[in-house]
Write a structure and sequence with these properties.
Length: about 130
């Protein structure tokens, strides 16, 4: 059985609240789970102790059993100091899209033309 440690959403519309659960990866996100391991309330401030609560003993047990944490849970475990920080690199995500690159090129061309136009009267004044 492929186990995951993941978030199960609760709370009403526009008021998210999550349970941190150990679940079979084939089960639905908010469906059946094996054990509740903690809670996550994203509406609280980042420095609040109540924002993320985890039962670290049980999480460590499930990790030892081979459960894989999701990306978000892995980040929470890194912040808690349970896991070592993983190297993440997605160089394509930070690059602008095709249209944004075209706009940047047009803007640079206009700026170069404006600089040339401003430099030309200065050269003529220097010649006189």
């Amino acid at each position: 059985m492929a186990m995951k440690i993941r978030l199960a959403r609760g709370g009403s519309k526009k008021r998210p609240f999550y349970r941190i659960v150990a679940a079979d990866s084939r089960m639905p996100r908010d469906g059946r789970f094996i054990e509740k391991l903690g809670t996550y309330n994203p509406l609280l401030p980042k420095d609040s102790e109540e924002r993320v609560k985890m039962n670290m003993e049980r999480i460590q047990y499930w990790l030892d059993q081979g459960a894989q944490p999701t990306d978000r849970i892995a980040r929470m475990l890194e912040a808690a100091g349970v896991r070592e920080k993983a190297e993440r690199s997605n160089p394509n995500k930070g690059t602008p899209g095709k249209k944004a690159q075209e706009r940047a090129e047009e803007k640079a061309a206009k700026a170069a033309d404006a600089a040339e136009a401003a430099a030309a009267p200065a050269e003529e004044a220097a010649e006189e």
